[in-house]
Amino acid sequence: MNKKKIAAILITGALAISIIGGTFAWFTASDSVTNPFSTGTTDDSNNPNSGVKVQEEFKLEDAKTITPGTEINKDVQAKNTSSYDEFIRVDFKIVWKDKDGKEVTKVTVGGTEYTLDNKLVELKTKNISTDGTQGTWVLDSTDGKYYYIGKVATESYTNTLLDSVKLSPLAGNEYKNLKFDVVVTAEAIQSSNGAYKDWASDNIKTYLGSEEAKAAFAPTDVAEPNGSN
């Protein structure tokens, strides 16, 4: 075999190897889908506790010189400021203060020490029930909080809970020169996926459990403040 034939055979073998080891351009296809998810939003992204707001009708000037037996209008509701339905509860706290604004629980008058009684600040509530009727509030004896029966939709609100505040006629001279705050705290939790079970006591769970599958309850009271009370 001459040199030219040998060279041709070597070249042919090299081409065959090159083809076997090469890459074919097949027809191929692919697909990808990205599904974005967003968590529920609230009115204030910088506040982890946002999502519920106390709305009220209350005139501060009416409460500046309160005397025993005087009743001051104070209408309180709670509003859902989140993007999801909520269950809502409200708590009231009475805080006594001296003339300088310092919190006190006792005062001394004429050499006698008196313990200030929170029960002398009478809170007149409304829309209260003991059977868990939709659109009412149920007082839980275990934590002292009022639970609203019914889901509250986004941008909606509860029926009125507090109607007025009165200093009892039983408040004596030891209550002169004092101030008191009625601190209203509203708390809310999502009304889905059984979240209420970790939030409410056994006394309330039955009511909220029956509400979870229902549509949000539309309030029958006018939103506060409305200037009509």
From TrEMBL:
It comes from Clostridium gasigenes. This is Alternate signal-mediated exported protein, CPF_0494 family. It holds the Pfam family Peptidase_M73. It comes from the Bacteria.
